[in-house]
Each structure stands twice: as C-alpha cells, then as structure tokens.
Write a structure and sequence with these properties.
heterodimer; A: 237 residues; mainly alpha; MetI-like fold
C-alpha cells in the first residue's frame, strides 16, 4: 500500500551498488567495502556521539539537582518519579515528532527529547543511591559536627556515587539506541545510515557495530571513572 | 532556537488530530490518506505485531527466569542478557533482520521478540532472587515440593516485578513497532516514515496515536501490577514508590 515511498527513499543508496558486480551488488557482508567506505560513517558517528553526550550531560545535571532536592523534601519523590516515568513512556519517535512544531527539524528537537529520556533513569538511581547510604555513616558524620551541606558532599554523595554512576551508564547506553531514531526528527547520527541502506548487509553491520561499540565505549568510560573516584570499593570488589 | 508563535504550533497539532479522523489527499494528491479507517487499520497491525512479540517473549523468558531464579544459577546470563539488550540499539536489530532474514510480519515479530526478552527475563530472575530465603525454607520445612515452592510461594511474591518487566517490554515493543515499515510491515509508523505521502499532519497525527496507545498500555499494566501484588507486599512496600527500573528493580521484598 504505502511501501513504495520507503523503498524510493532508500533508493539513492541502493542504486549506488546495483551497478556493482562485486560484493555489494550481491548483498554480501563486504568487509572490504566497509573499510573502503568508512568515510560514510565518520561524520554520522561523531554526530551520534554529540547526540548522546549532550543529552546525557544535560539530563545528568537536571536529574541530579532533582534528586538532591527530593532527597531533602521527600514528598517530591513520588510526583517527580511519576512525571519522569511518564516522559519515558512516550515513545522516543513520537516525542521527536511531537516536538517538531515547537523546536523545528534538527538537533534541538532530538536533544530536548533525548534529555527527557535520561531523567527517569538517573533520577531514580540518585534517589536509590542516597537512600542506600548507611544510617551509621550519616550519624557518624553528624556526630563529628558536619553541617548538612558537608554531610551531603563528604558522606552521602561519595557513598551514593556507584549507584548514581550506574544510572549514568544505563542512561548513556539507552541514549545511544534512542539517538538512532533522531534522523526522523531531521538530526543526523548513524540511524540515517541504517535507514538509507537497510537492505544492504555490509551497511547494516557497519552501522550496527559502530552503534554497539559506542554504547559499550561510553559504558566503559563511566565505569573507569567510577573505579577511579571510588578507590575504597576496589579493596572489597 | 526561535520558538514559533503558539498559534501556528496549535494549528499544526489541530491538523494532525484532524488527520486521524478525516481522510484527506496525500501530498502528491494521487490517493487519499488518513481518516479513522486507515489509521484504525494501521493501529490494528501495530497492536497485532506487538502483541505477538510480547506473548512469545513471555512464553520464552518467564519459564527460564523462574527456573534460573529458583535454582539461583545463571546470574551471568540474566544480567548479561540485560546488558547486551541495552547495548544493541533497537534500530540495529530491526535492520539486521531486514538485511539478513528479509521483511514481513514474521520477521518484524521475531525482531521485536528479541527486544522484549531482556526486561522480562531479567525482572523474572531478579524477582525470584528477591524472595526472602526464609520463606522458601519455611515452605520446604512444611513439606512443599520444589514445584510447589515455585508456584505457591515464589511466583506470587515475584509476580509484581515480573509484570513490571512485561510492562517495560510492551512499551518498548510498541515504540519500536513504529519502524516496522522499514521492514515491509505497515504499522502506525507508516505515516511517520513515509513523509512524502502523508506529510507533516500524518507524521504528527500518527505520533499522537502511538503515544496515546503506549501510555494507555503502560497505565493498564500498572493497574495489573497493583492487582497482582500480594497484600503483604503492599504493606511492606509503602513509601518506596512504584518500581519500573531495569534491570534491577528497586523493590526490596520484606516479610511482615
């Protein structure tokens, strides 16, 4: 019924290789083609990094502030969790398109929507992390005469850090996947590469691997940071 | 970014809502698109493929999760599946199926099933592990068989978290079925992806329908989740909030 336009859209890329009698023409995996055509993926890859890192960074700042606020005023936890969960439930592609009339086609829309998706994950982990700080540690800190600000920065946050960073890791990996749909909002990223040659195995493999690699690399980066800043956990781990 | 005037934004949304209920000419003017009949048909397809995927995922992952969780083995598998599931993007999985296995309903359903398995498997496993071991010991001491322990003690206590996993999967699958048209299956994603035919009204109209469908599904599962929560857990759970996180739900199971 309406499939024709989709194929037409992919046409540019497909036509690129129909004249080819080699591997791409036969729709193979074509490692050689991938190596020769890495240029096709370089810019989208960095766009994808941008579309992941920026929303995660903004989302982290917002969610951490929300978490700290809710830590002080406990009654805020339920409404904030409800609000961020509802944001998370709206499908990312819907969110991109619903924002289009407001923020227009392009990166703005993608960044706003992707930021909204990181909130629930990070917020929840901030709350859990802070709630999991042993009572004894807090009491000991208070007994030593720490103000509540000192208590937060010197006792509670450091002890909650592993949980908070775990949230950051999940948020980063999730955002890599969601940013693959950002091309529908007129932003770049590796999603467009996949869409343009979805029937070509070499292309799907190259773009898919790059996406997975990016998710794993960001995960590893945060994990290394966590190891570096929580030396006391290494002894027990 | 310069925000467009409110009136034009509202007008765009008005057009989009009209698309859902009223047929109109396509952008090229050759065919009529939109209207309740077409949108309804697309929504039915969307729902059908998502339903099949989630049901198969439940049938596959719940028994495995219950079994591994009861034995307390295979943590690496349960957690590993969750991590891999998160690292491999949904679009990549769909694209992989298209490029290597072809298009059509079955392939889309299979790809969506793969996406639906990790949250259900992990939540089932974690839910089983969170059951208080003393309860299991007590049941064993009363002469329950292993099967009875799973069915009468562990499963009821694990059920809310298992449904939490199913809820996440259902939402993910509904959201991902939007790209099914890339794999040759018309769903509510068709107006979104075939911009050339449906135009902006179609895109945004379909986006609204998917969002409503997903939020309704989520709310439905939330209700089911509350319904299957045993009374004892509700008391112990008060104040910790509803848990929807994945892979590790924050629910601490306590016995009164």
């Amino acid at each position: 019924m309406t499939l024709a336009p989709v194929i037409a859209q992919a046409g540019g890329f497909v036509r690129d290789r129909t004249g080819d009698t080699g591997c791409p023409g036969n729709n193979g995996i074509c490692l050689g083609w991938i190596v020769d055509n890495l240029d096709r993926y370089r810019t989208p890859f960095f766009e994808h990094v941008f579309l992941t890192v920026v929303p995660v960074a903004i989302g982290f700042a917002i969610a951490l502030s929300m978490g700290l606020l809710a830590h002080r005023k406990r009654w805020l936890i339920t409404p904030l969790t409800g609000f961020t969960s509802a944001l998370y439930t709206v499908p990312s592609i819907s969110a991109f398109l619903l924002l289009l009339p407001v923020t227009g086609r392009g990166n703005d829309t993608a960044i706003v929507a992707l930021t909204a998706y990181t909130l629930v994950i990070i917020f929840r982990n901030v709350i859990t992390g802070l709630a999991g700080v042993p009572r004894d540690s807090v009491d000991a800190g208070r007994g030593m005469g720490l103000t509540s600000r000192q208590l937060l920065f010197r006792v509670e946050l450091p002890l909650a850090l592993p949980e908070i960073l775990a949230g950051l890791r999940i948020a980063a990996a999730t955002t890599v996947g969601l940013a693959a749909f950002a091309y529908l909002a007129g932003a770049g990223g590796l999603g467009r590469n996949i869409d343009q040659g979805i029937e070509f195995r070499g292309n799907v493999l190259a773009a898919g691997l790059l996406l997975t690699l990016l998710a794993v690399a960001l995960d590893f980066l945060v994990l290394s940071f966590q190891r570096a800043v929580t030396p006391w956990r290494r002894a027990t781990a | 970014m310069i925000a467009p005037p409110l009136a034009s934004v509202l007008e765009t949304f008005g057009d989009a809502v009209r698309f859902i209920f009223q047929e109109r000419e396509s952008r090229a003017g050759t065919v009529n698109v939109g209207g309740l009949e077409e949108v309804g048909q697309l929504a039915a397809n969307h729902f059908a493929v998502s339903f099949v995927a989630v049901v198969i995922a439940i049938a596959v992952s719940v028994p495995i999760g219950l079994w591994l969780g009861h034995l307390g083995r295979g943590e690496l598998l349960a957690v590993g599946v969750a991590n891999v599931g998160r690292a491999v993007p949904a679009l990549a999985i769909i694209a992989f199926f298209v490029a290597f296995l072809g298009t059509g309903f079955t392939n889309v359903a299979a790809a969506l099933t793969l996406l639906a398995i990790p949250p259900i498997l992990t939540n089932t496993y974690v839910a089983m592990r969170q059951v208080d071991p003393e309860l299991v010991d007590a049941a064993r001491g009363q002469g329950f068989s292993e099967q009875q322990i799973v069915r009468r003690v562990e499963l009821p206590l694990a059920l809310p978290t298992i449904f939490g996993g199913i809820r996440i999967s259902a939402v993910t699958v509904l959201a991902t079925a939007i790209i099914a048209p890339l794999a040759g299956l018309d769903t509510l994603g068709t107006p979104i992806i075939s911009f050339n035919v449906y135009g902006e009204e179609g895109q945004i109209g379909a986006a609204i329908v998917v969002a409503v469908l997903t939020l309704a599904t989520d709310a439905g599962f939330a209700a089911v989740q509350r319904l299957v929560t045993p009374k004892g857990l509700k008391v112990a759970d008060r104040g910790s909030g509803r848990s929807r996180s994945w892979p590790i739900p924050i629910r601490r199971v306590q016995t009164p």
